[in-house]
Amino acid sequence: MVLNSGGSNNWNSTIGTDDGGNLDIYPQYRDTANGDFRLDYCSPLIEAGKNTYIPKDTYDWDFDNDVLEWIPFDLDGNERRQGNKVDMGAYEGIPVQDTLPMKLCVNDSISIGDTTISSYGLHTVYVTRLGKCDSIVVADISPMVDATIGASMDSLSYYAIDSNATYQWYDCTNHYALPADTNQSFTPWIPSSYRVIVSKDGCTDTSACITVSKVGLVESDKPMTITVYPNPSGGMYKLEMSSFLVDFRITAMDLNGKVILDKHSTNKSDQLDLSDKPAGIYILQLSSPEIGTISKRLVKE
């Protein structure tokens, strides 16, 4: 249909035969000034043609040996019929679609047109472009920060998947930050549950807690047990062994590996005084030739 042809009510016979179905509205081509007569997304010519008017595929353009079917392609080589009905004109209207990669902070959102998105993944949004028809935007939204934790082959060390960020590892059991553990990788000293907080490009995310049962510290498999109480405490701890030892060594260190106490004892019970130390988590090791090394975690409030 040509604009100003008169429509079906006032057909200009010099243009051709009137068979009805003409439209007297702007066809909304993409760029007529530059000779682009492809249909824009909201063109009224989309789904407005008649399927029976598609010429036969006499030259077998798709090489399927069927010359009685409709011509399968438009002038761009796209499928001639995209929907239930063929579009008017030489081209099938194909939506203008842009895929935009976007990153999002956790618990944040982003607005595209009138749509607000707060989850990761692919989101199809219909937006109005200034001075043009609607178009489709596919927003590919991924997290700004990946706080996933990976493990080494021997499961003795762990690392945050995301690189080039800042990190703070935590003991989930007591919700204590581990002051010395601010690197991407982390090697636990004692069995517990741990997580990491990752900050990058103004966004922060927290990993799930992972349970660690295998650590680099050597623990004895002998039946000897050691009880430490109260734990947590304000600094004074009571140590009691299940059996008598001739001589054993008591060592306490902070999470940086700095030894803050080192002494020998021959008592079945002993005391440990950390009253002058900052609140936090400490590692207690008791060792002797009979039991090897037993490790305990001390929590000072």
Describe this structure in words.
- With 301 residues, the chain is mainly β.
- 0% of the residues lie in helices and 39% in strands.
- Strands 10, 11, 13, 14 and 15 form a five-stranded antiparallel beta sheet that branches. Strands 19-18-21-22 form a four-stranded antiparallel beta sheet, with no helix packed on it.
- A hairpin with a 2-residue loop joins strand 13 (192-200) and strand 14 (203-206).
- The chain is rod-shaped, with a radius of gyration of 37 Å.
- The N and C termini lie far apart (84 Å).
- Mean pLDDT is 80; it is low at 217-222.
Quick synopsis:
Helix content is 0%, strand content 39%.
Separate helix tally: 0
Q: What is the string of SSEs from the N terminus onward?
A: EEEEEEEEEEEEEEEEEEEEEE
The main pleated sheet reads as: 5 strands, antiparallel
User: In percent terms, what proportion of residues is strand?
Assistant: 35-45%
Tell how many strands the DSSP assignment holds: 22
Q: Which structural class should the secondary elements be placed in?
A: mainly beta
Instruction: List unreliable stretches of 5+ residues.
Output: 217-222
The Cα radius of gyration reads: 37 Å
Mean pLDDT: 80
N-to-C terminal Cα separation, in Å?
Answer: 84 Å
- Backbone shape: rod-shaped
Determine the fraction of residues in helical runs and give it as a percent range. Answer: under 10%
